[in-house]
# Entry
Amino acid sequence: MRIDGIILRELQMPLVRPFETSFGVTRNRRILLAEVRSEGLTGWGECTAGEKPFFSGESTDTAWQVIVNDLGPMLAAAENVEHGGECPKIFRLVRGNRMAKAALENAIWDLEAQREGVSLSRLLGGVRDRIPCGVSLGIQATIPDLMAIIEKELEAGYQRIKLKCKPGWDVEVFERVRHKWPGILLSCDANSAYRLHDAERLRSFDQFDLMMIEQPLWHDDFYYHSMLQRQLHTPICLDESIHNRRDALAAIEMGSCRIINIKLGRVGGFSEAIAVHNAAMERGVPVWCGGMLEAGLGRAHNIALASLENFSLPGDVSASARYFADDIIEPEVTVTSKGEIDIPNIPGRGYEVRADLVERLTVRKETIRAFAMA
# Structure
């Protein structure tokens, strides 16, 4: 396919409620959208980088700069891009910057699905018609506030409750939740808030029958996680540590985790996400799809990814209305009373972009033309 042009936009989108993790509190999302035009079709990608380089080394501003100055011109100058899987080769001179790369690569996969007349999930190799959903709940002002939110999400049908945690917001919280809901599927996410000297405290989490403890130690670590996993009955799930297939293989071989969270932006796009998925499946390690407070386009891509066979655990993909009063796609993502999302079966990503709303929310815009590197 011929790339006719790329339009990069930044949108300002306030969250329905603040979302707090061990990194801090997010109230507004600065969303980067990449619109790739090709031969009368338009593919869309969303960059999931945060406002600050706290989750990863990328941020909204670094991703903007790298896409405008480097990745965008590289893609625009590429000849006859037939498949999203070609993007890693096109971007090979740029190290890291995976979230920026994913925004463009995922737009190419969207274009390819439209051109081939198949749904994005089927193009990726998906086998599901619907996916099970969980919710990720941030740190709240009080435990009663958290309990009220959990009750609401369980009534909505969500199949798994994930609690953000950190020292001082962990054991007492889990005790209260387990006492009220002894049978629910419950997990926690530390976002690297603990250290190995907290091992005794982390061992105490075993009593709460958690599905997993997500990324308890350093964001770039396998070794100490392998030491900790040997001390725990509860499976460790790695998130921030896994950037590619090689990382997944290393973590599995070292016994650093028993579950892997795959985030599209963190691994650089669909190509590497599929590679991580396949490596884990071949070794009997389940995976699930994590979230990054995405707007509708990122959410649509997560839904397609989570249709792959080894996404056997409920992920973080949930309804648009949990995060945004007005999402940028139609129809908005909704969850059934059974806690599932139906996967669209129409060509491409399965959701239309609300161009008028996108334009209204846009605070900056840059066009990268196909002759940029000619």
Observations:
- The radius of gyration is 20 Å.
- The mean pLDDT is 94.
- The CA atoms of residues 188 and 326 lie 28 Å apart.
- The chain has two domains: 5-116+354-369, 122-342.
